[in-house]
Amino acid sequence: MELKFKPDLKEAQKRWEAYWNYEIIERPCVYITAPKDPDNPVKRVPYMSGIKGNYEQALKEFEYWADNTLFLGDSIPSFDISYGPDEFAAFVGAELHIADEENTSWVTPFVTDWKEAKIELDESDNSIWLQMQKFLKYATDFSEGKFIINTIDFHTNLDLLSAIRGPQNFCMDILDVPDDVEQALNRARKLFPVVYNKLYEIGKMKERGTTSWLPFYCKDKFAVIECDFVCMISPNDSRRFLIPALTEEAEFLDHSIFHLDGVNALVHADDILQIDAIDGIQWVPGDGKPPMLDWMDLLKKIQKHKKGLFIQATPDEVKLFHKELKPEGVFYMVDAKSEKEADDLLNWLIKNT
Length: 353
Description:
By secondary structure, this protein is of the alpha/beta class. Helix content is 42%, strand content 15%. The strands form 3 sheets. Strands 2-1-11-10-9-8-7 form a 7-stranded mixed beta sheet. Strands 3-6 form a two-stranded parallel ribbon. Strands 4-5 form a two-stranded antiparallel sheet. The protein is globular.
């Protein structure tokens, strides 16, 4: 495969293969981009662009950004199709509401009784599930030879159930009717591989490889797996409901990264780190919490479990992380102000690895 906007794709693919084997070639993996014209940088296409049917406009705007951007290091240009964090809930029939500015969305819960709840893909005319497939097919054809398409934002398992029931009601259900919740979750778990395989096929990901809203790259099946709802439950409930679902998702994929979101989720970190099939962790402290550099003990703990890390940082911050962390399994995402700044960082990493 060749990509117009990534002429050194084969070199990047070699580094990504080493990354998943917990090895390095010269330096850690780095997704680093820079504007071709530092004095007139082009803004990237906003989140959720194109979801109102304006596919061509969104893709042309992305292509314009890509044409004015240097994809350096191990960065691979990819377009993100997203109907928002509750898109999976919309796939099973929850009514999706899109803000006028198109950068956020939400769904209306519809479950009143888990025993009667239908948890299946909505194949009706104009469903979000069908719209996603249509958009992906258009984007896949448009992007041929230029860039690839991301996998979606998989808020499955408990996030899905919380969205279609409502978080407050769902918290009470876990206490009041846990067996009903478990049976509903078992039905929901069956949808993850069905959705993934369908989008994998439409997006020609077997031929192109896979990436996501976190810009890892894998020649096989990869996704970010997550559960933001986990911060609402106890470790015992997590072990009953979430850990088996996460394990199943990770084992279905060839590679996966878990999105660990917020300090309230840290109580579950040890259990998540025990899932062998999860390759790495994206730790997000949350708004108002200490910056990533202040979480070095946690990052080193993750590394001791031989899990990779995703770290978004400035060039100067990357150097500080690199001095503290093992280079194997670390993936840095950096927005450089210029090609020189990007090259200087990559060269520094090579010299200091």
